[in-house]
Specification:
By secondary structure, this protein is of the alpha/beta class. It has eleven helices and twelve strands. It has a seven-stranded parallel β-sheet with strand order 3-2-4-1-5-6-7, with helices on both faces. Helix 10 runs antiparallel to helix 11.
């Protein structure tokens, strides 16, 4: 059994790449499973993976390393019930030190399953470009520490969202990254380009191994915890009902939240909405880019008058402030468009201090 570990900072396009890659592999006749992961309990990405028809299980309320036993049991559950050839294991975007706390333990404790694994770190192309060039990033140094460590420990570094750069910018960035991280395989790709995803999958095959003999990275867990504690997590589930088609109202809601985050100058890992409408298929819209300037939600027409929505926001802020921003945007949209808001459940919090169950040096 092969486990393709996928890490990378919030909003780097991991889930979209996994879904599209899984579809490629399934079209070849391979059995594929996905394990998603988040600090909260209402996860847009897990809903989207399931909607895409890919067998998936979620490790919720904490990262893989702190919920290792849950992760391990989910691996065994997928192995028994789905018989997967390949499992994509996507860690939460604020998690690092995966080799020492997850990969080495699973290879050691589950030897009889003949597991081979590889670790890919994804990065938003413009965030990585700013980091390489010493530019301003929208996060504090403690949060950026997590971003750096995710890249440091990876076998493969994917510069994702290549479509946000010009061709010349992409080539230059890939060359600069290869120079800085000379020991890693470096790819420049878009999650929507099948040829580039084929290249990534082939590279995973080449780098997969059934043991990890290299030393684990050095990790300052106090600084790691400081980075986690600077982020606010907000998950909200609610239903909107309109006298007319809801699509314009959802677009307005998304744009209002996006603009408010920019106005408050808050570092935003991601903003995602999973919309399950009364008519048509469910879909996801996300904030992309460092400042959300490229986030123009592409909504299908005719989604009906009612929809259940899961909203995830991961922002460097206080939970109360983030909750106020989201609450105001929803209330304002409901007032302007005469919407009925029901079935509201919200959880706003800071992630816990990372305390891995295992750590192999």
């Amino acid at each position: 059994m092969k486990i393709y570990f996928v890490s990378g900072f919030l909003g780097s396009g991991k889930t979209t790449s996994i879904i599209n890659s899984a579809k490629i592999l399934m079209a070849r006749g391979l059995n594929v499973g996905v394990i998603t992961n988040d600090q909260g309990k209402y996860l847009v990405d897990n809903s989207f993976v399931k909607f895409s028809g890919i067998p998936s299980i979620e490790v919720a309320n904490g990262c893989f390393c702190c919920n290792y036993d849950d992760f391990d049991s989910h691996i065994l559950d997928l192995a028994e019930n789905q018989k997967p050839d390949i499992i994509f294991a996507e860690s939460v975007g604020s998690c690092a030190d995966i080799v020492a706390t997850v990969m080495k333990p699973i290879l050691e404790f589950r030897k009889k399953h003949s597991i081979s694994s590889s670790l890919t770190a994804f990065s938003d192309s413009r965030l990585l470009r700013a980091r390489i060039h010493g530019g301003r990033l929208p996060f504090s140094e403690d949060v950026i520490y997590i971003f750096d460590k995710q890249i440091e420990e990876a076998d493969i570094l994917v510069i994702n969202k290549s479509d946000l750069l010009t061709e010349a910018e992409g080539i230059q960035l890939q060359n600069e990254v290869k120079l800085k991280y000379s020991s890693k395989a470096v790819l420049l790709q878009s999650a929507f380009n099948d040829d580039e995803l084929y290249t990534w999958l082939s590279l995973i095959e080449e780098t997969s191994m059934n043991q990890r003999t290299e030393a684990s990275i050095e990790m300052d867990y106090e600084k790691y915890a400081d980075g986690e504690l600077k982020m606010a997590w907000l998950d909200k589930v609610f239903t909107l009902e309109s006298p007319v088609d809801l699509a314009p109202s959802i677009e307005s809601l998304f744009n209002t939240i996006n603009q408010s985050l920019n106005d408050e100058i808050l570092g935003t890992g991601h903003l995602k909405l999973f919309i399950n409408p009364s008519e048509g298929e469910a879909f996801k819209i996300s904030r992309t880019g460092m400042d959300g300037s490229d986030s123009k939600p592409d909504l299908p027409s005719g989604i009906g008058r009612k929809a259940k929505i899961i909203l995830n926001a991961r922002v460097e802020s206080s939970p109360d402030k983030l909750s106020d921003i989201i609450h105001y945007a929803i209330s304002d949209t409901c007032r302007k468009d005469t919407l009925l808001l029901t079935s509201v459940d919200e959880n706003a919090f800071r992630p816990g201090i990372p305390k891995p169950v295992h750590r192999f040096n």
